[in-house]
Amino acid sequence: MLYFKSCPKCITGTVEHNHDSHGAYAQCLNCGFMRDLSDGISGTELNGLLAAWRNDLLAVEPESADAVA
Ligand SMILES: [Zn+2]
């Protein structure tokens, strides 16, 4: 499953929801941002996680919030 323009880090990147021998993960095809996921996570849940990760990144770099907004 692909999530276009959903990357929490680079914003415009496409995030791929995939899984390998280690389990499920989400990875940005543009910047390489990656997070492990619970197995069987739904698209709705992943969208919520993407939003939460984006907020986390903005909290770390508050000056970037103006550029996004
Ligand atoms: Zn990205």
In a nutshell, what does this entry contain?
By secondary structure, the chain is an alpha+beta fold.
Global geometry: globular
Classify the helix fraction into a percent range: 25-40%
Give the SSE order as H and E letters.
EEEEHH
Bound ligands:
zinc ion
Report the sheet-strand fraction: 15-25%
Q: Gyration radius, to the nearest Å?
A: 12 Å
Number of helices: 2
Mean pLDDT over the residues: 90
Low-confidence stretches: none
- Number of strand segments: 4
Structural class: alpha+beta
Distance between the termini: 27 Å
Summed up, the domain count is 1
Largest sheet: 4 strands, antiparallel
Strand order of the largest sheet: 1-2-3-4
Key features?
2 helices; binds zinc ion; about 70 residues
Layout of helices and strands:
Layout: E1 2-3, E2 15-20, E3 23-28, E4 34-36, H1 43-60, H2 64-68
Antiparallel strand pairs: 1-2, 2-3, 3-4
